[in-house]
Amino acid sequence: MKAVHFGAGNIGRGFVGLLLHRGGYEVVFSDVAGALVDAINAVESYTVHEVGPGGVDTVVTGFRALNSAADPDAVAAEVATADVVTTAVGPTVLKFVAPLVLAGLRRRDPALPPLQIMACENAIGATDLLRVEIVGLAGEEWDASRAVFANTAVDRIVPAQPADAGVDVTVEPFFEWAIERRPFGEHPPVIPGAHFVDDLAPYIERKLYTVNTGHAATAYFGALAGFDEISDALGDPAIHARVAAALEETSELLAQRHGLDPAELAEYRATILERFRNPALADTVWRVGRQPMRKLSRHERFIGPAAAAAELGLEVDALVGAVGAALSFDDPADAQSVELQRLLHTTDAAELTGTLTSLDSEHPLFPLVQAQVAARQATLA
Ligand SMILES: NC(=O)c1ccc[n+]([C@@H]2O[C@H](COP(=O)([O-])OP(=O)(O)OC[C@H]3O[C@@H](n4cnc5c(N)ncnc54)[C@H](O)[C@@H]3O)[C@@H](O)[C@H]2O)c1
Ligand SMILES: O=P(O)(O)OC[C@@H](O)[C@@H](O)[C@H](O)[C@H](O)CO
């Protein structure tokens, strides 16, 4: 069995590649970073180090890597004969992966089973997004019987890796991978430890609106207070209280929307905050806060739950406070952070609120976010 995995970065090697290897797939990593591709091809194995309570080391073998920027044709040839395609490139990069997957499908022997495609990104409906890109490129030639698409929710914290780590990856021991079951019919992919579910919505929303809302809130409050590391930021009682309050608001929404048990949600929140506090993980506010404009967009970790909660008349003060902290995220190395700070200097508060969140000005959340934008602009004047 063979899997082609796009994005040989932190989660690609430290989670998706690892579980595909455990499932018995040969893993062909495809990446645009030439030095990373060379480094992967220079070794016969790499080690995933789990740090924290119960952590173990796992040696991964049976992989190779291709440079999709230098040799897209080779990638298409691998896709043509693969069983599974996965991605972990970031939601905004899926449109660049789509042409390669389509090129592989065009070359695929019609006698082969449908290609099983799963995008493993932090976004609701990421695989749907990839499917729309592929189908759009194919136009009238699209043959829906050649591929199956399943949305997934992946959870494991994999920080940026030290420069001297080679292709080894340090990760937390915890992981969760929920995958839509129905698209696969009787033939799901072999991924030990993953669970297949009929309705992914509660899983992806619980994950994105708890793990990622809490993580990003910690990063933005932490950066504002001068912390570099997530574990240190959460050690600050004032930041802990603000993050916990934001997660109580998202839990209330999840309980109402999906009927999730409040006591189980409280336990889930506690586990997650404990994961963030893992001192062995060396995760930074800069990685976790990366791409703040993506994180402030309509269906993402802040505006997604806050908009839905506001529509239901639920509390959103803590989430709105976290949005305010996100507006202060100022990392010269992050293109979206630079653009956000530029827009704050140049754009009227109401217009910028609409640009960032895509909320209608009549939406009950709109004036609350606009007030945060105006307050941030007042500090810059
Ligand atoms: N790191 C985590 O803790 C974690 C956990 C769950 C989900 N995710 C999600 O996984 C995705 C990747 O995150 P990451 O932390 O591994 O980032 P990363 O930057 O470590 O890895 C992304 C990789 O994608 C590669 N890439 C960029 N453009 C590409 C292209 N066109 N084709 C092939 N490869 C390309 C990059 O070179 C890089 O190696 C994101 O959507 C993220 O939200 C990350
Ligand atoms: O990858 P992002 O930028 O969407 O979010 C940053 C982190 O919150 C994220 O990578 C988490 O570590 C991960 O989602 C944990 O499962």
From TrEMBL:
<dbReference type="InterPro" id="IPR023028">
    <property type="entry name" value="Mannitol_1_phos_5_DH"/>
</dbReference>
<dbReference type="Pfam" id="PF01232">
    <property type="entry name" value="Mannitol_dh"/>
</dbReference>
<dbReference type="InterPro" id="IPR000669">
    <property type="entry name" value="Mannitol_DH"/>
</dbReference>
<dbReference type="InterPro" id="IPR036291">
    <property type="entry name" value="NAD(P)-bd_dom_sf"/>
</dbReference>
<dbReference type="InterPro" id="IPR008927">
    <property type="entry name" value="6-PGluconate_DH-like_C_sf"/>
</dbReference>
<comment type="similarity">
    <text>Belongs to the mannitol dehydrogenase family.</text>
</comment>
<dbReference type="InterPro" id="IPR013328">
    <property type="entry name" value="6PGD_dom2"/>
</dbReference>
<feature type="domain" description="Mannitol dehydrogenase C-terminal">
    <location>
        <begin position="199"/>
        <end position="340"/>
    </location>
</feature>
<feature type="domain" description="Mannitol dehydrogenase N-terminal">
    <location>
        <begin position="1"/>
        <end position="190"/>
    </location>
</feature>
<keyword id="KW-0560">Oxidoreductase</keyword>
<dbReference type="Pfam" id="PF08125">
    <property type="entry name" value="Mannitol_dh_C"/>
</dbReference>
<keyword id="KW-0520">NAD</keyword>
<dbReference type="InterPro" id="IPR013131">
    <property type="entry name" value="Mannitol_DH_N"/>
</dbReference>
<feature type="binding site">
    <location>
        <begin position="3"/>
        <end position="14"/>
    </location>
    <ligand>
        <name>NAD(+)</name>
    </ligand>
</feature>
<dbReference type="GO" id="GO:0019592">
    <property type="term" value="P:mannitol catabolic process"/>
</dbReference>
<protein>
    <recommendedName>
        <fullName>Mannitol-1-phosphate 5-dehydrogenase</fullName>
        <ecNumber>1.1.1.17</ecNumber>
    </recommendedName>
</protein>
<dbReference type="GO" id="GO:0008926">
    <property type="term" value="F:mannitol-1-phosphate 5-dehydrogenase activity"/>
</dbReference>
<dbReference type="GO" id="GO:0005829">
    <property type="term" value="C:cytosol"/>
</dbReference>
<dbReference type="InterPro" id="IPR013118">
    <property type="entry name" value="Mannitol_DH_C"/>
</dbReference>
